[in-house]
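Question (not urgent): is this output format expected?
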Amino acid sequence: MVSSTIELLKEELPVNQESLVLSEDVKTGLVLVDIVNGFCTVGSGNLAPTQPDEQISGMVDESVKLARVFCEKKWPIFAFLDSHHPDIPEPPYPPHCIAGTNESKLVPALQWLENEPNATLRCKDCIDGFLGSIEKDGSNLFIDWVRTNQIKKILVVGICTDVCVLDFVCSTLSARNRGLLVPLEDVIVYSNGCATFDLPIHVANTMKDAIAHPQELMHHIGLYIAKGRGAKVVSEVSFGA
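Got this back:
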């Protein structure tokens, strides 16, 4: 019954996805959103999966593959790491990804990025990475990264599709439309490189103030809203000659 309802909703809210071929001709940057232990590694905190999760594991695998190729080609990478001060809450979420703990570190399969010269890592203490890139002097590290590298396309992967990924994508699209991100043209979301969490209704009903969050449906809705805001959504990524 649940799966048939989701399929019906997908028919009513279709997300038409393209195939993306990246080439040297157009400067492209890879953006990794919150692929940290606190969201991806089983048992690593309040918001980590409690058991192996196929969608999250697939997202990590695809993100690692892309990061490897971008580094081989010396193309720019920007990685957000959710990182919170223990005394500053982020309602409605419980404490998570506390700065200095293993939760706020990149997953083991991506920790090598810390030593890559073409990778920029940014710890953020809010859902929206675009806002989390604002420095005390008012400058924005993400905007500077786009301008410095003269990036025309960004390819976005990470977690959660409908939360941190979506908020970052929407803010970036608004900033692009305001002319703050010249020469950026396209914001591209790779569906298989994104994932979200699963909180079935029967579990949510046992928790105070929790709301249900069916994984497959919310992943689809995140992609649907991103596309509606102007992002491109792709199901395949390959590299041209």
